[in-house]
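Listing S7. Sequence submitted for prediction.
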Amino acid sequence: MSSGPADAATPAVSAFYDRFPYPGDPLEDGPPPGYNWRWSYPCVSSACTGRLPEAGQPPRLLDAGCGTGVSTDYLVHLNPGAEVLAVDISSGALEVARERLRRSGGARHCPSLRIEQRSLLELDGEGPFDLINSVGVLHHLRQPEAGLQALAALLKPGGVLHLFLYADGGRWEIHRVQRALMALQVVGDGEGLRLGRALFEQLPEGNRLRRHHEQRWALDTAADANFADMYLHPQETSYQLDGLFRFVASAGLEFAGFSNPEVWDPARLLQGELLERALALPDRQRWALVESLDPDISHFEFFLSRGPLRLSTWDSDGDLLAAGGRRNPCLWGWPGATLLDPDLRPIELDDQELVLLKALETAPEFTPIGGLSLGWSPDQQAAVARRLWSRRLLLLAPGYGASATGM
């Protein structure tokens, strides 16, 4: 890492994570458990554009603020052949990250992996990257805008940046606990950890802050590093939705969608006439409505792009049948018909959906959907494939001669 701090908060934040390497997930032998599609570049590309990334050179991925390497472990296992650079300012966290990747096999799985102690503000010359992952990082800078601008400069035109930032609304109780501990001169060290946990034990059982912690966050903060990160961190910023979009605009990036879109669907909160009114609103007004109605939203997770992204909707049967297909790799339970989808929701494949996905598994890579020998009519083949694509179970790549519109 450079001799001078890249951000005013860097020394304090680096020392904090040396004491409390975060996240506090246990080390395990073998690949990481489960799948998170947000760390799979093909899945991210499909979520943001409707299609797989173009074939070519191996994708270049940056894990900007990798901490103890949980996200890096997923990146190397879900993106075979990719070039991966993982950076963090904490030597203590990186020591854990290197051990995690050694034990999981990730270091062998990705020979081009680099894990380095560097600030994300000091990566000139490292880009461009196809995908940048920076989860839970920028809100710990004294100047988050500078961090976003630095990442934007490293992003390839058409590349995607995945961010996770704190939201004001769902952190109301957390902020009050933080202020209380600060007033009591409790700091982020071992003694502060003991006193922070004691606070929740001593508050009356009916106290809103204690109740909220026990019901919402006790499991997530069981690890000491996670508790310290939530309540004892020396530097953090949180956002409301309107401020979030001003933040995005400060770096000249395009909003490419939430990576948890189900949270922003008013149908989980409203019904009938009120839902109809909500669905008629423009996107940002509809999201602002959800933000107002759900005070438990504690973070924003979303994609940004450098330049607008062209969307493929696969309305044309001809384009869809000419497209190559690939099963979404982030499914639990495959090859069965009863699965968990990429967001871990239970789903059931019908007989035709199962047949088509299995046919893709045994066909040469990127065999056109229309080239699968299923004994179906072209209309039926296109309808089943479109249904799978709309459920994000099938990833599609344009075939030769596909039109520029309607994909």
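Caption to Listing S7: primary sequence and predicted structure tokens for the chain studied. The radius of gyration is 23 Å. The first strand starts at residue 60 and ends at 64.
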